[in-house]
Specification:
Helix content is about 10%, strand content about 55%. It has about 425 residues and is mainly beta.
Length: about 425
């Protein structure tokens, strides 16, 4: 067998050394390349000079505009002074949110927001808006006006498309203001949920354009407001010295119609009313309210001055000092004309001095607030036991102070009762 030439045997020991040298050269080239890239890349070059307190950050940007989107749909655009992204990319922190514009599914703006602080949780897709945040809702079910929301923080869930807060919150708009304990705004459906709130607003249902502006206090337990159908639970309303409550109210704003159900009550200095169902039509051509199902009223006595000493109080003045309890099936009130119609089983009972009672029955009644008249129709009966019982088909009662009168245009029939003590005394000549 032939042996290998001598030069070949000498070259073999040099191969490991050559490979090591090449590896060193490649490493040096790679290090040099990285250093060159660092000098060329502005982000890496900036990172090399980051102060120690900013070392955990991966990226720090100033004065930028962000766009939040889901595929082709844009949720919002945010303009901030600075944005810091952590190395783990879990939290994005922004300072001074100058303006955020929120969009609906069709890409139309529905609101704006601003705040001092902003934190975005990337995995959870949640935005925490803090530092005196102010949210302006431009499209909402309450009306065609911007609604401003101010609270300590707002939580914006991008996946659920909801903005909410569980802290006391102030709301304000052009003609009113209010406070609530919890807010939830569903951006997809437009539903605005307000819990345990109180508003002070000008009257939208009963106020006429020619009347001076007046305000109403409204409180509720839960309100779900939509553009077409809103639901309110535990409603309480105060208009000056008038107070009203309802267990539930449904408002259909497109039809300009509201329905209140459950236990209903209205109280003011002159009258208390209880019912089970109240309907209100508040369109431009329909200004009326209808209360039905076991309607009960108490007309409270007036505070009148006692007669001068030595004068006997008239029966009309005496009756003013006693309440009237009335019931009927249905009350319909046209509040533009200030006319009310009562229908079905009308009965009014008044307690009188010395334990006497006066009861009035009618099939229908019409009350004109401007004229201060009450017209009773149908089978009208006035019953005062042990004194009189009168029946007529039409009675017109004037309720003007000092001008109280009763007219019976169609006549009347009845019975008067008297006792021997009521008989006229026998004249001195013995003739009657």
């Amino acid at each position: 067998m032939m042996s290998a030439p001598e030069p070949t045997r000498r070259a073999r020991p040099l191969r490991p050394l050559t490979q090591f040298s090449l590896l060193v050269l490649i490493t040096l080239a790679l290090v040099w390349g990285i250093a060159l890239i660092r000098r060329q890349d502005p982000f890496l070059r900036a990172a090399a000079t980051i102060p120690p307190d900013l070392q955990p950050l991966e990226l720090l940007l100033e004065r930028l505009t962000l766009t939040l989107r889901d595929g082709e749909r844009v949720w919002a655009t945010l303009r901030v002074d600075a944005l810091a992204i952590e190395r783990n990319r879990v939290h994005w922190r922004a300072t001074r949110l100058r303006q955020a514009v929120l969009y609906d599914e069709r890409g139309k703006p529905i609101g704006t927001a601003r705040a001092d602080e902003l934190t975005y949780n990337f995995p959870a897709k949640r935005l925490y808006i803090a530092g005196n945040p102010t949210l302006t809702i431009r499209r909402h079910p309450l009306g065609d006006f911007p609604l401003t929301v101010q609270t300590a923080w707002l939580n914006w869930d991008l996946r659920q498309q909801q903005i909410h807060t569980d802290l006391p919150t102030r709301l304000s708009w052009q003609d009113g203001q209010g406070a609530i304990e919890r807010l939830r705004w569903d951006l997809a459906s437009g539903v605005l949920t307000l819990e345990r709130g109180r508003f002070r607003v000008s009257s939208a249902l009963v106020q006429e354009r020619a009347q001076p502006k007046r305000e109403i206090d409204i409180q509720w337990d839960t309100a779900k407001l939509r553009s077409d159908h809103s639901e309110v639970q535990g409603l309480r309303l105060r208009d000056g010295d008038t107070f009203a409550t309802a267990e539930r109210a449904d408002i259909y704003d497109r039809q300009r119609y509201a329905l209140a159900t459950g236990t209903l009550r209205l109280e003011d200095p002159r009258i208390d009313i209880d019912g089970k169902q109240l309907e209100i039509w508040y369109g431009e051509n329909q200004k009326r309210a209808r209360l039905q199902n076991s309607v009960r009223m108490r007309i409270k006595p007036r505070q009148t001055e006692p007669p001068p000493e030595g004068e006997e109080e008239s029966e009309v003045e005496q009756a003013k000092r006693y309440p009237v309890d009335a019931t009927c099936d249905d009350i319909e009130y046209f509040y533009r004309r200030k006319v009310a119609y009562l229908r079905g089983n009308i009965k009014a009972v008044q307690q009188l001095p010395e334990g006497r009672t006066r009861t009035l029955y009618a099939d229908e009644a019409e009350y004109d607030q401007n004229k201060e008249t009450l017209i009773l129709k149908g089978k009208v009966i006035l019953d005062e036991p042990d004194r009189l019982r009168m029946e007529t088909a039409l009675a017109i009662v004037s309720l003007k102070e000092g001008e109280e009168t009763v007219e019976l245009p169609r006549g009347a029939k009845g019975v008067f009762y008297y006792t021997e003590e009521d008989e006229e005394a026998t004249p001195p000549n013995g003739n009657r």
